Amino acid sequence: MGNILLKVHESYRMVVAVCDSDVFGGKLIDGDRVLDLSGAFFDGDALSVAEARNEIVRCVREDATFNFVGKESVALAREIGIVKDEGVMEIDGVPFALVLM
Hints:
The protein is of the alpha+beta class. The chain has one domain (4-100): uncharacterized conserved protein from methanopyrus kandleri fold like. Helix content is 23%, strand content 38%. The strands form 2 sheets. The protein has a 6-stranded mixed sheet with strand order 5-1-2-6-8-7, with helices on one face. It has a two-stranded antiparallel ribbon with strand order 3-4. A hairpin with a 2-residue loop joins strand 7 (89-91) and strand 8. Helix 1 crosses helix 2. The mean pLDDT is 94.
């Protein structure tokens, strides 16, 4: 089983949800901010880091938008070069980033 859950939502453009498997299923709460990771949006295929990297790179070529949640997922987005440090926020101690290509 992989460490990263990845789900591609087809719309007028692809919306890609990328989430560390260890944070999936919970809610991140920080004051008024709540990020619910328990629904279908982040419930994707379990992939290895290498598999997730390949799928993210493919989706970047398709002009997708991305939602990254978790240390491993955000680190992968940084490694690929689609997220910079200033684009990373934290909620309840967990990093997340939104990317619009």
